């Protein structure tokens, strides 16, 4: 969910940085400390690992009450709630956003706990890597699984996400069925709705009402990412300098990044990405095999597809397209060139797709 504000920041709203009117500061952490034997880079494409942290810091008492998530004290520490990979092509003209289930079955590397005790490698769900060792352990676990090198790390929090949505004047979503979710406490009739920051948090946290758990929640998160991108790149935002600057400032204030992500890097990237449109952004979930997998004492985890997932990561590593256009063989009687056949084995969507239409 919080990934959404960075997805927007890295893929579209970042262009406003070129205006030189941004005042927000970005909190930095050393996300790559102690990492060795990392994957080789095969291109100059950029990979961002986006993590949503469920820290309550920054939320008012009224917002905590509206979300029904308890107090800051009752949720001390930070837990990984959402993960996404954002791949930006070497030409900076295309992007792929891959949702990573937090329940993905993973081998968590050997690491030291808070007391300095060495903990051997063990199987668990991938979000355990973040819970046990923060950004460095999560990056190491993901890189080991995907053989894809992470260039930058971004973490987004509850309060920042709500501010991003409110800076845009709310986000429009469409739900095909009634929502009455017992955990997020979101109640929406089927139809089109414009959600404020707090209701948007509820929407992207919803996971109980449809029986799909995290899979359904990721689908709604992808829908929301697309809606944010459409709003952020609309004329009403891009041509309104006050709204644009407020949006970028709120996005930057919402995130914590690795120490290597510099403001100058963002400005350079912004200039390269001015032509990026929502039709050039594809969203998908890492291909899965068994939706619920039990092994090595880890229950109710999800398993990446052993064929399609490695192919996806290899394509991104080599900066190749995630969909194929196959030219059909001409028939003897053909008098004109046949249209290419689109092969989309990863079931992607474009950020321009609008479920409300």
From TrEMBL:
Domain Cell envelope-related transcriptional attenuator: 79-233
Gene3D superfamilies in the record: LCP protein (3.40.630.190)
Originating species: freshwater metagenome
Protein name stated in the entry: Unannotated protein
Signal peptide: none
């Amino acid at each position: 969910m919080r990934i959404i504000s960075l997805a927007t920041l890295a893929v579209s709203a970042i262009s406003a940085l070129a205006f030189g009117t941004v005042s927000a500061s970005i909190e930095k952490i050393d996300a790559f400390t102690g990492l060795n034997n990392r994957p080789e880079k095969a291109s100059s494409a950029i990979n961002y690992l986006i993590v949503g942290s469920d820290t309550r810091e920054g939320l008012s008492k009224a917002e905590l009450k509206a979300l029904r998530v308890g107090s800051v004290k009752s949720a001390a520490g930070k837990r990984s709630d959402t993960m996404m990979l954002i791949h930006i092509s070497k030409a900076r003209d295309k992007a792929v956003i891959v949702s990573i289930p937090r329940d993905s079955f993973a081998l968590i590397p050997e690491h030291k706990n808070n007391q300095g005790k060495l903990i051997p490698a063990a199987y668990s769900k991938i979000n355990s890597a973040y819970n046990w060792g923060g950004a460095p352990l999560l990056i190491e676990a993901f890189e080991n699984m995907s053989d894809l090198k992470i260039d930058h790390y971004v973490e987004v929090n509850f309060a920042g996400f709500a501010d991003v949505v409110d800076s845009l004047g709310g986000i429009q979503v469409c739900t095909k069925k009634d929502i009455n979710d017992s955990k997020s406490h979101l109640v929406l009739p089927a139809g089109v709705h414009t959600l404020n920051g707090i209701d948007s948090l509820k929407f992207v946290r919803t996971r109980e009402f449809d029986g799909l758990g995290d899979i359904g929640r990721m689908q709604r998160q992808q829908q929301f990412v697309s809606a944010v991108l459409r709003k952020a790149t609309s004329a009403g935002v891009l041509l309104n300098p006050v709204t644009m600057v407020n949006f970028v400032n709120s996005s930057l204030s919402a995130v914590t990044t690795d120490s290597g992500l510099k403001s100058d890097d963002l400005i350079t990237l912004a200039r390269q990405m001015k032509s990026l449109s929502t039709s050039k952004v594809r969203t998908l979930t890492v291909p899965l095999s068994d939706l619920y997998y039990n092994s090595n004492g880890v229950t109710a985890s999800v398993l990446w597809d052993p064929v399609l997932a490695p192919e996806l990561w290899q394509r991104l590593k080599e900066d190749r397209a995630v969909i194929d256009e196959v030219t059909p063989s001409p028939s003897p009687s053909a008098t004109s060139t046949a249209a290419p056949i689109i092969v989309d084995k990863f079931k992607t969507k474009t950020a321009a797709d609008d479920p409300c239409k």
